[in-house]
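G., before I forget:
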Amino acid sequence: RESSEPSDKSETSERDVRVVLEERVLWEQFHALTNEMIVTKTGRRMFPVIKVSVSGLDPHAMYSLLLDFSAADAHRWKYVNGEWVAGGKPEPQPPSCVYIHPDSPNFGAHWMRAPVSFCKVKLSNKMNGSGQIMLNSLHKYQPRMHIVRVGGPQRLLSSHAFPETRFIAVTAYQNEEITTLKIRHNPFAKAFLDAKERSDPHKDG
Amino acid sequence: RESSEPSDKSETSERDVRVVLEERVLWEQFHALTNEMIVTKTGRRMFPVIKVSVSGLDPHAMYSLLLDFSAADAHRWKYVNGEWVAGGKPEPQPPSCVYIHPDSPNFGAHWMRAPVSFCKVKLSNKMNGSGQIMLNSLHKYQPRMHIVRVGGPQRLLSSHAFPETRFIAVTAYQNEEITTLKIRHNPFAKAFLDAKERSDPHKDG
DNA sequence: GACCTTCTCACCTACGTGTTAAGC
DNA sequence: TCGCTTAACACGTAGGTGAGAAGG
């Protein structure tokens, strides 16, 4: 955690590292329905995307930003009659690999200049080449972001978990309200939005 | 240049920084015809791409890789009767902006792990938003790559110019052999390769 | 007219979507 | 059968090509 060592002059400016999740309204719409994220063999992007604004770093020091996914509970989940219910014993959880933000390593000034988006992270249900995060389908996960100081003795500065970004990994969407919400907001799914709006022009909410 | 200061223990490993241009055969084919690169208002990528393999860095130290374009001579060039000829006095040369490789800053280990490609640099004839390099059309340029040590006192380690990457900036190709060679090797021009091969299936060389 | 630049265009690369049917 | 996973698919986003007509 923060400032666990006696601080020298170069570390005093990091006492108040702050990380704020962007697009919280969108995340909360998904969270209210119990969010789902597709996992595939070759890896699937997340939607919504985890995007954070960072402040309180030393502009001239070097940091890396990391994302990982901790098991949110010890259950296997099942979608029955329109509801997610916790099932039997979970499979042994492999330690979630860590995704390193592609701008890493970089100066504090870079991370603070604009919100940092983890749009390129890919979720998979198979272990294969680097860059992808392997998750267990039908298990619930809690994304977490970490800031590590690098370019010297490596040191974990802070970790943040965003409850509204929790989701259940799936190989196909279970709740069709989730599907609808994804189509409505993800530009890459616009083909399906057009199809839906042609048959359903006044739907909202 | 290299090791201009008395070296301390962390700098001794950088005495033999080596930078080798990749795809030299391709570059030399273009160079033999006098290479041309398109410049546009919004910026145009280079083809071929400048790609280098780097060795001799300290794996744990931090570096940035830079690309710039120096005026190769003081002339304005003109394509007349199938030949490039030097013309009148050149316009005053604005200092070429520097392009910072998007992986910058990064560890020596990163730069040495695989060849580093400058495929995203864009050449323009107008000065506008960041990321683009402004050049004078019909002037000849010499690309140069620089390695700078960062994350501490900044220090230029080495500069490399690759003669076979020289080119004349143009707003439209002048030598149609250059056009043919670009179409033959650039995947993004495949539409024109297909058209040409349908009418000319056995051309080579 | 001659020369150079700009813009629109069809046609690609590359890849992110949910759908659907098939596989297990 | 049922539940879950996979692969092919149509249809988008995003953007890199030279061609060719138009502009200056």
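The interface with chain A takes residues 62, 105-107, 151 of chain B (CB under 8 Å). The first strand of chain B starts at residue 18 and ends at 21.

More on Monday.
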